[in-house]
Amino acid sequence: MGIIADTFRQMKGVKTGKGLHCVSAWGKDIKKNSKGFSHLINNDGWALLLGVDIYRLTSMHYVESELPIEIINKFKAPKELLEYYPENEWYIEVGSPSIPGDAWEVR
Predict the structure, then answer these.
(1) Is residue 96, in this structure, part of any structural domain at all?
(2) Are 8 and 26 in contact (CB under 8 A)?
(3) Within its chain, how far is the Cα of 91 from the centroid?
(4) Pairing of strands 24-25, 15-16
(5) Among 28, 33, 35, 98, which has the highest number of CB atoms less than 10 A from its own CB?
């Protein structure tokens, strides 16, 4: 998102995938990389963040979806809460990491 990403997306030789969370790619493996983050993540890809913090790194959500079920279950909302906020209508995160404070904070 933003002017840097939009400028890159419009450059000659860049391929942008389809869907809500589409990825733009250029260079080696352009077809694989424009389909999403899995190829980059599985091949030690890198992310460059310019002017934003780690919370804007969309590929983190891909990694979250690949976590073991034991970890995913630690952050599931209780049934009582889901009665009021069904998963198919709301996105809810509960719990917190065991690290005090902001684990991603740059010091």
Answers:
(1) no
(2) yes
(3) 14
(4) antiparallel
(5) 33
Q: Which residues pair with 15 in a beta bridge?
A: 25
Q: What's the number of domains the chain is made of?
A: 1
| Domain residue limits at 44 | 3-84
| Measured CA distances, 107 to 1, 9, 49, 51, 101 (Å) | 26, 32, 17, 16, 12
- Sign of the four-CA dihedral 40, 46, 52, 56: positive
Dihedral sign (CA 97, 98, 101, 102): negative
Question: What tokens appear for 78 in the block?
Answer: 């209780």
Q: What is the pLDDT along the chain (107 residues), one digit of tens a residue?
A: 678 888 999 999 999 998 777 889 999 899 998 988 888 888 888 877 777 777 777 777 777 777 888 888 887 888 899 999 998 898 777 776 565 666 666 55
From CA 37, how far away is CA 52, in angstroms rounded? 19
Question: Is 105 a member of any domain?
Answer: no
